[in-house]
Amino acid sequence: MKKTCSVMTCEYCDLDVYLNVKLFYESSGYRVFKDKISRDTNLLVVLRGDKEISDHEYTGVVHAYDYVREYKIDWRARFSKASRIFVISPTPPEYPDGVNYVKGYLPVIPELWQSPLKKKDSRPMHISHFKPMGEDQYQQELLKIIKSGLVRVYGKKWDRVDIKAKPLSYCQVNKMFAASSICYGLMYPYQRGKTLSGRMWQAPLQGCFVISEAGTNIAGCPGVIEVMSFSADNLSVIDHSIEKCQALALEAARYWKTATQILADELKLKISLKSVSNRRIFGPRRLLSAIRQTVEQLFRALQIRRMLKLTERRPLYLIVETVNTCNAHCVFCCYGKTKIKPQVLPMDIFEKVIREYSEMGGGAVSLTPVPGEVLLDPHLIKRYEILAKYKNIDQVSFTTNGIAFEKYSDEELKYILKSSFMIQVSIGGLDREGYKSLYQVDQFENVLNSVSRLLVLKKAIGSDAHIHLSFRTNNPNFEDIHREQLEAYKRQGCLISHISWYGNFGGIVKSGEVKDVSIINGSGLAKNETCVYPLLAPSVLPNGLITNCGCVDVNGDSLIIGDAHYNSLRDCWSSKERKNILDSFRQGNLVDLCRQCSMYRPSAHLAEPVYKNIRSYKKLPLEFYLLYGG
């Protein structure tokens, strides 16, 4: 089995860098993954010297490429249990204790980038997004020759200085270097003399000379010409004929092959750059495939970042658990195995929380208790009336076992249907005995009759509420066996789902203690990334306490971030208690509930398609509800 290598960067991923790194480690015998780490990961590669990445449980080898030189990072403190840490940088790290410093830059695979040189444009160019650098001498001089028309410019944000420029894709950048004989570089002042610029390797490989600031070519890269100032006179000192450009491309290829082989040796990697060349990685199809794959990974990373930003200031949705009693005793549930006392959330606390949530912008509200049955709430209709007062509350949903629907009048159910986005009904299969064995009550016929009644009323009033029949059984083949009945429900507009494996409610329900029911054991899961549940929503418990996990903190004693009697929802969401909960995953000091939990979903889950269209707190897509239930 191949060794695994995870390439991590939370801040930004340079596509050209990633493609070089990916091939470098693949040619060393690793299977390479991006932003994915587990207990079995043999090698962790950190790009850009990213300050956000740490893991106190990881025991493998770390390669930290600190080529941006923006942060001062104590790598040993961030990966305290790592067997070895190599810090790769052109200049020594600020915290050398406990790490192996490798003087170098990045692996560069010339064959990935070089293309035949035919015709060259002698007019210089500059490819970069505009950098806000104040009165920096080099930037002011570059702006002057750009505005004079001497230098072409490509990138974003140049309109800030009244310059028209268009951005280029990575493929277009590579083509522009191949078609040009000279380009200008510009580094941030804090980077000069400490690291290299990406154009210092990519441009010369395409036979394009780089004019750069004095003191920046600290590695002696071929084709990089240092100058004391940027001006039209720079061009007179460079012979940029097609022959010289072709010679530069050959020299740069030799230089970077040698530098990359030396880097591999320093990192104790067995790699042959000759074998890399034989892979024909520079073919158009292979390159496009690699770029397409990497772009997809970039979009996933951007989606995760967007979701994290979205939930940083406020919850994506709100859970309010108004009761904690139930009229079933499902064998897979924690109900009856907890120490909570029967309670009903006071109406004044309910309205206070809803008002505060509305003031934060509102959005979706779930009334699903864990554990408990929402239809047993004696004030349910009044709570719906309160929710209706706040126009920012745009979606209301809940999950129910459906047993108590019979206690509600047609008019009350019509009002609930009219006011709900989704009603999820948990049903123990489609036969009476199977239902009784799982739910421990004889209510099968009652529930099916209630579902039929609900569908009739929904049609009568033209409600847009989604009715989701969520079947719970111990038979993985349930959907095949009952296909005709399920299709009949679908024709009536029902959504259908089914599970036969169950969570362990943070270890409250034990694997193997329930006969013929599969309970997932969560203690063996690697939990290095923050779980999505505390990232997305808080839950107000019937006693007024606010937990950061409405999924499994059923006792309200492990993940509490406040009390609705005394604290505002906004303060709870930004509290130190919540920050500590989020940080506990990365720091490896989880509470026992999280350590045992089988419902864990890492923050990487935010890259899944279900989150693609979530760009605000309003009108969450139906797919989201199907994933998270009611």
Strand content: 15-25%
Low-confidence stretches: 277-283
Please give the count of helices.
21
Helix and strand composition category: alpha/beta
Give the spatial strand order of the biggest sheet.
Answer: 17-16-15-14-13-12-20-21-22
What profile does the largest beta sheet have?
A: 9 strands, mixed
Which word captures the global form?
Answer: elongated
**Average of pLDDT:** 89
Q: Termini distance?
A: 42 Å
Which percent range fits the helix content? 25-40%
Number of strands: 22
Alpha-carbon Rg, integer = 30 Å
Tags for this model:
alpha/beta; 630 residues; nine-stranded mixed beta sheet
Can you characterise this structure?
The chain has 21 helices and 22 strands. It has 630 residues and is α/β, with parallel strands linked by helices. It has a nine-stranded mixed beta sheet with strand order 17-16-15-14-13-12-20-21-22. Strands 2-1-3-4-5-6 form a six-stranded parallel beta sheet, covered by helices on one side. Strand 9 (182-184), helix 6 and strand 10 (209-213) form a beta-alpha-beta unit. Helix 12 (410-419) packs across helix 14. The longest helix is centred in the middle third of the chain and has 30 residues, at 284-313.
Produce the secondary structure layout.
Layout: E1 3-8, H1 15-26, E2 30-34, E3 43-46, E4 61-65, H2 75-78, E5 84-89, E6 100-103, H3 110-113, E7 125-127, H4 137-147, E8 152-154, H5 170-179, E9 182-184, H6 199-205, E10 209-213, E11 224-227, H7 242-266, H8 273-277, H9 284-313, E12 317-320, H10 347-359, E13 363-366, H11 380-389, E14 393-400, H12 410-419, E15 422-427, H13 432-439, H14 444-461, E16 466-472, H15 478-481, H16 483-491, E17 495-499, E18 501-502, E19 518-519, H17 532-536, E20 539-540, E21 545-547, E22 560-563, H18 569-573, H19 576-587, H20 592-596, H21 622-628
Parallel strand pairs: 1-2, 1-3, 3-4, 4-5, 5-6, 7-8, 9-10, 10-11, 12-13, 12-20, 13-14, 14-15, 15-16, 16-17, 18-19
Antiparallel strand pairs: 20-21, 21-22
Helix pairs in contact: 12-14
